[in-house]
Write a structure and sequence with these properties.
Elements (H helix, E strand, L loop, with lengths): L14 E5 L6 E2 L2 E2 L3 H15 L3 E5 L19 H8 L3 E4 L4 H5 L6 E4 L6 H4 L3 H9 L3 E4 L21 E3 L1 H15 L5 E5 L8 H7 L5 E4 L2 H9 L14 H13 L3 E3 L3 E5 L8 E5 L8 E5 L1 H13 L2 E5 L12 H15 L4 E5 L1 H10 L7 E3 L3 H7 L5 H9 L1
Parallel strand pairs: 1-4, 1-7, 4-6, 5-6, 7-8, 9-10, 9-15, 10-11, 15-16, 16-17
Antiparallel strand pairs: 2-3, 12-13, 12-14
Protein backbone atom coordinates (compact mmCIF):
# COMPACT_ATOMS: atom_id res chain seq x y z
CA UNK A 1 0.00 0.00 0.00
CA UNK A 2 1.64 3.23 -1.13
CA UNK A 3 -1.06 5.63 0.05
CA UNK A 4 -2.35 6.59 3.48
CA UNK A 5 -5.77 5.79 4.92
CA UNK A 6 -7.88 7.49 7.58
CA UNK A 7 -6.03 5.35 10.14
CA UNK A 8 -2.91 7.46 9.59
CA UNK A 9 -4.65 10.78 10.27
CA UNK A 10 -5.40 12.66 13.49
CA UNK A 11 -8.86 13.99 12.69
CA UNK A 12 -9.77 15.57 16.03
CA UNK A 13 -10.64 19.22 15.60
CA UNK A 14 -9.73 19.13 11.90
CA UNK A 15 -11.67 20.30 8.88
CA UNK A 16 -11.40 17.35 6.50
CA UNK A 17 -11.75 18.29 2.84
CA UNK A 18 -13.46 15.17 1.49
CA UNK A 19 -13.88 14.46 -2.22
CA UNK A 20 -16.93 12.25 -2.74
CA UNK A 21 -18.98 11.01 -5.67
CA UNK A 22 -22.65 11.82 -5.15
CA UNK A 23 -23.45 12.12 -8.85
CA UNK A 24 -26.64 10.12 -8.36
CA UNK A 25 -29.31 9.56 -11.04
CA UNK A 26 -32.44 11.65 -10.63
CA UNK A 27 -35.88 11.84 -12.23
CA UNK A 28 -38.45 14.54 -11.58
CA UNK A 29 -36.39 15.88 -8.70
CA UNK A 30 -36.13 12.53 -6.92
CA UNK A 31 -33.08 10.30 -6.54
CA UNK A 32 -33.69 6.99 -8.33
CA UNK A 33 -30.61 5.19 -6.99
CA UNK A 34 -28.86 6.34 -3.80
CA UNK A 35 -26.06 3.75 -3.93
CA UNK A 36 -23.30 6.33 -4.31
CA UNK A 37 -24.52 8.21 -1.24
CA UNK A 38 -24.85 5.02 0.77
CA UNK A 39 -21.28 3.98 0.00
CA UNK A 40 -19.69 7.16 1.37
CA UNK A 41 -21.57 7.01 4.69
CA UNK A 42 -18.83 4.96 6.50
CA UNK A 43 -16.16 7.55 5.65
CA UNK A 44 -18.28 10.53 6.69
CA UNK A 45 -19.42 8.80 9.88
CA UNK A 46 -15.85 7.90 10.84
CA UNK A 47 -14.55 11.44 10.30
CA UNK A 48 -17.31 12.84 12.53
CA UNK A 49 -16.83 10.09 15.15
CA UNK A 50 -13.13 10.92 15.38
CA UNK A 51 -13.82 14.60 15.98
CA UNK A 52 -13.44 15.88 12.44
CA UNK A 53 -15.68 18.00 10.26
CA UNK A 54 -16.16 16.76 6.66
CA UNK A 55 -16.15 19.47 4.00
CA UNK A 56 -17.63 17.71 1.00
CA UNK A 57 -16.41 18.40 -2.53
CA UNK A 58 -18.32 16.82 -5.40
CA UNK A 59 -19.47 17.29 -8.97
CA UNK A 60 -22.93 16.75 -10.41
CA UNK A 61 -23.64 16.26 -14.10
CA UNK A 62 -21.69 18.05 -16.83
CA UNK A 63 -22.16 21.82 -16.43
CA UNK A 64 -18.94 22.43 -18.43
CA UNK A 65 -17.64 25.24 -16.25
CA UNK A 66 -20.94 27.13 -16.14
CA UNK A 67 -23.41 27.65 -13.29
CA UNK A 68 -26.39 25.47 -14.18
CA UNK A 69 -29.08 25.81 -11.48
CA UNK A 70 -30.64 22.39 -12.14
CA UNK A 71 -27.23 20.80 -11.48
CA UNK A 72 -26.82 22.44 -8.07
CA UNK A 73 -25.82 20.09 -5.24
CA UNK A 74 -28.28 21.91 -2.99
CA UNK A 75 -31.02 19.53 -4.15
CA UNK A 76 -29.13 16.62 -2.55
CA UNK A 77 -28.99 18.14 0.94
CA UNK A 78 -32.17 16.39 2.25
CA UNK A 79 -30.99 12.97 1.09
CA UNK A 80 -27.48 13.50 2.43
CA UNK A 81 -28.81 14.68 5.79
CA UNK A 82 -31.01 11.59 6.02
CA UNK A 83 -28.19 9.17 5.23
CA UNK A 84 -25.65 10.88 7.48
CA UNK A 85 -28.06 11.20 10.40
CA UNK A 86 -27.44 14.94 10.85
CA UNK A 87 -28.16 18.16 9.00
CA UNK A 88 -25.83 18.98 6.12
CA UNK A 89 -24.89 22.63 5.70
CA UNK A 90 -24.81 23.80 2.08
CA UNK A 91 -22.53 26.63 0.98
CA UNK A 92 -22.50 28.14 -2.50
CA UNK A 93 -19.39 30.30 -2.10
CA UNK A 94 -17.18 28.69 0.56
CA UNK A 95 -14.53 30.41 2.63
CA UNK A 96 -12.45 29.29 5.59
CA UNK A 97 -13.95 32.07 7.68
CA UNK A 98 -17.45 30.69 7.06
CA UNK A 99 -16.34 27.12 7.74
CA UNK A 100 -14.68 28.05 11.03
CA UNK A 101 -17.93 29.58 12.30
CA UNK A 102 -19.68 26.20 11.99
CA UNK A 103 -19.82 23.54 14.73
CA UNK A 104 -16.78 21.32 15.15
CA UNK A 105 -18.69 18.26 13.88
CA UNK A 106 -20.47 20.04 11.02
CA UNK A 107 -20.88 18.32 7.65
CA UNK A 108 -20.58 21.03 5.01
CA UNK A 109 -21.39 20.55 1.33
CA UNK A 110 -19.69 22.86 -1.16
CA UNK A 111 -21.47 23.70 -4.43
CA UNK A 112 -20.76 21.68 -7.61
CA UNK A 113 -17.01 21.89 -8.28
CA UNK A 114 -17.64 21.74 -12.03
CA UNK A 115 -19.46 25.08 -11.96
CA UNK A 116 -15.93 26.48 -12.37
CA UNK A 117 -13.95 25.74 -15.54
CA UNK A 118 -10.86 25.73 -13.29
CA UNK A 119 -11.93 22.35 -11.85
CA UNK A 120 -11.59 20.21 -14.98
CA UNK A 121 -8.51 22.21 -16.05
CA UNK A 122 -6.88 21.24 -12.73
CA UNK A 123 -6.00 24.92 -12.35
CA UNK A 124 -3.38 25.36 -9.58
CA UNK A 125 -5.20 28.43 -8.28
CA UNK A 126 -8.38 26.43 -7.66
CA UNK A 127 -6.42 23.61 -6.02
CA UNK A 128 -4.71 26.12 -3.74
CA UNK A 129 -8.03 27.76 -2.88
CA UNK A 130 -9.71 24.45 -2.07
CA UNK A 131 -6.79 23.58 0.20
CA UNK A 132 -7.51 26.67 2.32
CA UNK A 133 -10.90 25.16 3.22
CA UNK A 134 -9.45 22.18 5.11
CA UNK A 135 -6.60 20.86 7.23
CA UNK A 136 -6.58 17.35 5.74
CA UNK A 137 -7.59 16.07 2.30
CA UNK A 138 -9.46 12.77 2.03
CA UNK A 139 -10.31 11.35 -1.39
CA UNK A 140 -13.22 8.92 -1.24
CA UNK A 141 -14.17 9.17 -4.92
CA UNK A 142 -12.37 6.37 -6.76
CA UNK A 143 -14.98 6.75 -9.51
CA UNK A 144 -13.51 10.19 -10.30
CA UNK A 145 -9.88 9.18 -9.73
CA UNK A 146 -9.22 8.84 -13.47
CA UNK A 147 -9.81 12.59 -13.81
CA UNK A 148 -6.92 15.00 -13.23
CA UNK A 149 -9.12 17.72 -11.74
CA UNK A 150 -8.44 20.29 -9.05
CA UNK A 151 -10.61 18.50 -6.47
CA UNK A 152 -9.42 14.97 -7.32
CA UNK A 153 -5.69 15.46 -7.85
CA UNK A 154 -4.48 19.07 -7.56
CA UNK A 155 -5.50 19.72 -3.97
CA UNK A 156 -3.62 16.67 -2.66
CA UNK A 157 -0.33 18.50 -3.27
CA UNK A 158 -1.23 21.11 -0.66
CA UNK A 159 -2.57 19.11 2.30
CA UNK A 160 -1.80 15.91 4.21
CA UNK A 161 -3.81 13.41 2.18
CA UNK A 162 -5.41 10.00 2.55
CA UNK A 163 -7.92 7.64 0.98
CA UNK A 164 -11.41 7.38 2.43
CA UNK A 165 -12.90 3.98 3.24
CA UNK A 166 -14.63 3.57 -0.14
CA UNK A 167 -11.48 4.54 -2.05
CA UNK A 168 -9.50 2.18 0.20
CA UNK A 169 -11.92 -0.68 -0.45
CA UNK A 170 -11.81 -0.14 -4.22
CA UNK A 171 -8.01 -0.02 -4.38
CA UNK A 172 -7.57 -2.97 -2.03
CA UNK A 173 -9.99 -5.10 -4.05
CA UNK A 174 -8.40 -4.21 -7.38
CA UNK A 175 -4.85 -4.72 -6.15
CA UNK A 176 -5.80 -8.14 -4.76
CA UNK A 177 -7.43 -9.07 -8.07
CA UNK A 178 -4.71 -7.92 -10.47
CA UNK A 179 -1.57 -6.68 -8.72
CA UNK A 180 -1.14 -9.58 -6.29
CA UNK A 181 -3.75 -12.19 -7.26
CA UNK A 182 -4.00 -15.81 -6.30
CA UNK A 183 -3.80 -17.95 -9.46
CA UNK A 184 -5.47 -19.27 -11.52
CA UNK A 185 -6.87 -15.85 -12.48
CA UNK A 186 -9.84 -15.71 -14.85
CA UNK A 187 -11.23 -12.59 -16.53
CA UNK A 188 -14.66 -12.26 -18.07
CA UNK A 189 -14.60 -9.55 -20.73
CA UNK A 190 -17.85 -8.84 -22.51
CA UNK A 191 -19.61 -5.97 -24.19
CA UNK A 192 -20.60 -4.90 -27.64
CA UNK A 193 -17.31 -4.03 -29.32
CA UNK A 194 -13.71 -5.21 -29.37
CA UNK A 195 -12.67 -1.65 -30.22
CA UNK A 196 -13.61 -0.45 -26.71
CA UNK A 197 -11.70 -3.26 -24.98
CA UNK A 198 -8.40 -3.38 -26.91
CA UNK A 199 -6.33 -1.79 -24.13
CA UNK A 200 -8.07 -3.90 -21.52
CA UNK A 201 -7.30 -7.16 -23.32
CA UNK A 202 -3.69 -6.09 -23.92
CA UNK A 203 -3.19 -5.42 -20.21
CA UNK A 204 -4.97 -8.58 -19.03
CA UNK A 205 -3.22 -11.10 -21.30
CA UNK A 206 0.11 -11.03 -19.39
CA UNK A 207 -1.64 -11.04 -16.00
CA UNK A 208 -4.41 -13.64 -16.16
CA UNK A 209 -4.57 -17.32 -17.06
CA UNK A 210 -7.83 -17.33 -19.02
CA UNK A 211 -10.06 -14.68 -20.58
CA UNK A 212 -13.67 -15.57 -21.25
CA UNK A 213 -14.89 -13.46 -24.19
CA UNK A 214 -18.61 -12.69 -24.30
CA UNK A 215 -21.20 -10.32 -25.72
CA UNK A 216 -21.08 -8.83 -29.17
CA UNK A 217 -17.27 -8.70 -29.12
CA UNK A 218 -17.18 -12.52 -29.12
CA UNK A 219 -18.76 -12.40 -32.58
CA UNK A 220 -15.78 -10.49 -33.93
CA UNK A 221 -13.42 -13.18 -32.63
CA UNK A 222 -15.62 -15.93 -34.09
CA UNK A 223 -15.63 -14.17 -37.46
CA UNK A 224 -11.84 -13.76 -37.23
CA UNK A 225 -11.63 -17.55 -37.00
CA UNK A 226 -13.61 -17.90 -40.22
CA UNK A 227 -17.05 -18.59 -38.74
CA UNK A 228 -20.22 -17.12 -40.20
CA UNK A 229 -21.93 -14.83 -37.67
CA UNK A 230 -24.95 -13.98 -39.82
CA UNK A 231 -26.51 -10.61 -38.99
CA UNK A 232 -24.82 -10.45 -35.59
CA UNK A 233 -23.19 -7.32 -34.23
CA UNK A 234 -19.62 -7.71 -35.47
CA UNK A 235 -16.72 -5.37 -36.24
CA UNK A 236 -15.71 -6.91 -39.56
CA UNK A 237 -13.07 -4.21 -40.05
CA UNK A 238 -11.24 -5.44 -36.93
CA UNK A 239 -10.82 -9.12 -37.82
CA UNK A 240 -7.06 -8.70 -38.30
CA UNK A 241 -6.83 -7.05 -34.89
CA UNK A 242 -8.80 -9.91 -33.34
CA UNK A 243 -6.37 -12.38 -34.88
CA UNK A 244 -3.45 -10.35 -33.47
CA UNK A 245 -5.01 -10.51 -29.99
CA UNK A 246 -5.44 -14.27 -30.35
CA UNK A 247 -1.75 -14.55 -31.31
CA UNK A 248 -0.73 -12.40 -28.34
CA UNK A 249 -2.73 -14.62 -26.01
CA UNK A 250 -1.12 -17.78 -27.38
CA UNK A 251 2.34 -16.23 -27.00
CA UNK A 252 1.49 -15.12 -23.45
CA UNK A 253 0.07 -18.53 -22.53
CA UNK A 254 -3.31 -16.97 -21.78
CA UNK A 255 -6.28 -19.00 -22.99
CA UNK A 256 -9.00 -17.05 -24.81
CA UNK A 257 -12.33 -18.79 -24.22
CA UNK A 258 -14.96 -18.19 -26.89
CA UNK A 259 -18.54 -19.51 -26.88
CA UNK A 260 -18.98 -23.16 -27.89
CA UNK A 261 -22.64 -22.66 -28.65
CA UNK A 262 -24.84 -19.59 -28.95
CA UNK A 263 -28.44 -18.42 -28.83
CA UNK A 264 -29.59 -16.66 -32.00
CA UNK A 265 -32.74 -14.89 -33.16
CA UNK A 266 -33.93 -13.05 -36.27
CA UNK A 267 -34.67 -9.87 -34.30
CA UNK A 268 -33.35 -8.01 -31.27
CA UNK A 269 -36.48 -8.11 -29.13
CA UNK A 270 -37.62 -9.56 -25.83
CA UNK A 271 -38.79 -13.18 -26.12
CA UNK A 272 -38.04 -13.26 -29.83
CA UNK A 273 -38.14 -16.78 -31.31
CA UNK A 274 -34.64 -18.20 -30.94
CA UNK A 275 -32.53 -21.25 -31.53
CA UNK A 276 -29.44 -22.77 -29.92
CA UNK A 277 -26.67 -23.95 -32.23
CA UNK A 278 -22.90 -24.32 -32.46
CA UNK A 279 -21.01 -21.04 -32.40
CA UNK A 280 -19.61 -21.92 -35.81
CA UNK A 281 -23.03 -22.44 -37.40
CA UNK A 282 -25.00 -19.21 -37.15
CA UNK A 283 -27.63 -19.05 -39.94
CA UNK A 284 -27.12 -16.12 -42.30
CA UNK A 285 -30.48 -14.57 -41.46
CA UNK A 286 -30.00 -14.66 -37.66
CA UNK A 287 -28.04 -12.74 -35.02
CA UNK A 288 -26.18 -14.11 -31.99
CA UNK A 289 -27.64 -12.63 -28.81
CA UNK A 290 -26.29 -14.86 -26.03
CA UNK A 291 -23.93 -17.68 -25.18
CA UNK A 292 -25.51 -21.13 -25.10
CA UNK A 293 -25.85 -23.76 -22.34
CA UNK A 294 -22.68 -25.65 -23.34
CA UNK A 295 -20.74 -22.41 -23.09
CA UNK A 296 -22.18 -21.77 -19.63
CA UNK A 297 -21.13 -25.24 -18.46
CA UNK A 298 -17.63 -24.60 -19.80
CA UNK A 299 -17.48 -21.30 -17.87
CA UNK A 300 -18.64 -23.03 -14.68
CA UNK A 301 -15.90 -25.63 -15.09
CA UNK A 302 -13.30 -22.89 -15.50
CA UNK A 303 -14.57 -21.06 -12.42
CA UNK A 304 -14.40 -24.28 -10.38
CA UNK A 305 -10.62 -24.27 -10.84
CA UNK A 306 -10.13 -20.50 -10.49
CA UNK A 307 -9.03 -18.60 -7.40
CA UNK A 308 -9.52 -15.05 -8.69
CA UNK A 309 -12.14 -13.62 -11.06
CA UNK A 310 -12.22 -10.18 -12.68
CA UNK A 311 -15.48 -9.44 -14.52
CA UNK A 312 -16.16 -6.58 -16.94
CA UNK A 313 -19.02 -6.88 -19.41
CA UNK A 314 -22.02 -9.19 -19.96
CA UNK A 315 -22.02 -12.44 -21.93
CA UNK A 316 -25.09 -11.54 -23.99
CA UNK A 317 -27.94 -9.08 -24.45
CA UNK A 318 -28.73 -9.22 -20.72
CA UNK A 319 -31.26 -6.39 -20.94
CA UNK A 320 -33.87 -8.55 -22.69
CA UNK A 321 -35.14 -12.04 -21.87
CA UNK A 322 -34.25 -14.77 -22.54
CA UNK A 323 -30.85 -13.47 -23.72
CA UNK A 324 -29.80 -12.78 -20.13
CA UNK A 325 -29.57 -16.48 -19.31
CA UNK A 326 -25.82 -17.02 -19.84
CA UNK A 327 -24.83 -13.88 -17.91
CA UNK A 328 -27.21 -14.73 -15.06
CA UNK A 329 -26.17 -18.38 -14.81
CA UNK A 330 -22.43 -17.67 -14.89
CA UNK A 331 -22.74 -14.76 -12.45
CA UNK A 332 -24.83 -16.76 -9.97
CA UNK A 333 -22.32 -19.60 -10.11
CA UNK A 334 -19.43 -17.20 -9.46
CA UNK A 335 -21.41 -15.70 -6.59
CA UNK A 336 -21.97 -19.14 -5.04
CA UNK A 337 -18.25 -19.95 -5.22
CA UNK A 338 -17.41 -16.54 -3.76
CA UNK A 339 -19.84 -16.91 -0.87
CA UNK A 340 -18.30 -20.31 -0.09
CA UNK A 341 -14.85 -18.70 0.08
CA UNK A 342 -13.55 -20.60 -2.95
CA UNK A 343 -13.24 -17.60 -5.28
CA UNK A 344 -12.26 -13.93 -4.96
CA UNK A 345 -14.52 -12.12 -7.43
CA UNK A 346 -14.23 -8.46 -8.41
CA UNK A 347 -16.56 -6.88 -10.94
CA UNK A 348 -17.22 -3.42 -12.28
CA UNK A 349 -18.48 -1.28 -15.14
CA UNK A 350 -21.95 0.12 -15.69
CA UNK A 351 -23.45 -2.74 -17.71
CA UNK A 352 -21.70 -5.29 -15.50
CA UNK A 353 -23.12 -3.90 -12.27
CA UNK A 354 -26.58 -3.66 -13.83
CA UNK A 355 -26.38 -7.26 -15.06
CA UNK A 356 -25.18 -8.61 -11.71
CA UNK A 357 -27.90 -6.72 -9.87
CA UNK A 358 -30.57 -8.06 -12.23
CA UNK A 359 -29.30 -11.61 -11.79
CA UNK A 360 -29.23 -11.33 -8.01
CA UNK A 361 -25.53 -12.28 -7.94
CA UNK A 362 -24.10 -8.91 -6.88
CA UNK A 363 -24.50 -9.33 -3.11
CA UNK A 364 -22.30 -12.43 -3.01
CA UNK A 365 -19.45 -11.20 -5.21
CA UNK A 366 -16.35 -10.36 -3.18
CA UNK A 367 -16.40 -6.78 -4.42
CA UNK A 368 -18.52 -4.78 -6.84
CA UNK A 369 -17.00 -1.53 -8.07
CA UNK A 370 -19.38 1.29 -8.93
CA UNK A 371 -16.54 3.33 -10.44
CA UNK A 372 -17.27 2.80 -14.14
CA UNK A 373 -14.58 4.56 -16.16
CA UNK A 374 -12.01 4.53 -13.36
CA UNK A 375 -12.47 0.77 -12.90
CA UNK A 376 -11.95 0.16 -16.61
CA UNK A 377 -8.88 2.41 -16.79
CA UNK A 378 -7.38 0.61 -13.80
CA UNK A 379 -7.91 -2.73 -15.55
CA UNK A 380 -6.28 -1.24 -18.64
CA UNK A 381 -3.16 -0.56 -16.58
CA UNK A 382 -3.42 3.21 -16.75
CA UNK A 383 -2.20 5.57 -14.03
CA UNK A 384 -5.15 7.20 -12.28
CA UNK A 385 -4.33 10.85 -11.40
CA UNK A 386 -6.40 10.78 -8.19
CA UNK A 387 -4.54 7.71 -6.93
CA UNK A 388 -1.16 9.00 -8.08
CA UNK A 389 -1.79 12.21 -6.12
CA UNK A 390 -2.40 10.22 -2.92
CA UNK A 391 0.75 8.18 -3.53
CA UNK A 392 2.80 11.35 -4.06
CA UNK A 393 1.39 12.90 -0.89
CA UNK A 394 2.22 9.78 1.15
Amino acid sequence: MTWKTLDAMDLAGKRVLTRVDINVPMKDGAITDATRIERIVPTIAEIVAKGGSPILLAHFGRPKGQVVPELSLKQLVPALSQHFGQDVIFVERPSRDFIDTQPANAIILVENTRFSAMEEANDPKMAQFLATLGDIYCNDAFSAAHRAHASTAGVAAHLPSCAGRLMQAELTALEAALSHPEHPVVAVVGGAKVSTKIELLANLIPKVDQIIIGGGMANTFLAAQGHNVGKSLCEHDLLDLAREIIAQAIAGKCALILPKDVVSATEFAANAPHTIHAASACPSDMMILDAGPQSVEQIKSILDDAKTLVWNGPLGAFEIEPFNMATDAAALYAATLSKAGKLRSVAGGGDTVAALNISGAADDFTYISTAGGAFLEWLEGKTLPGVAALEASA
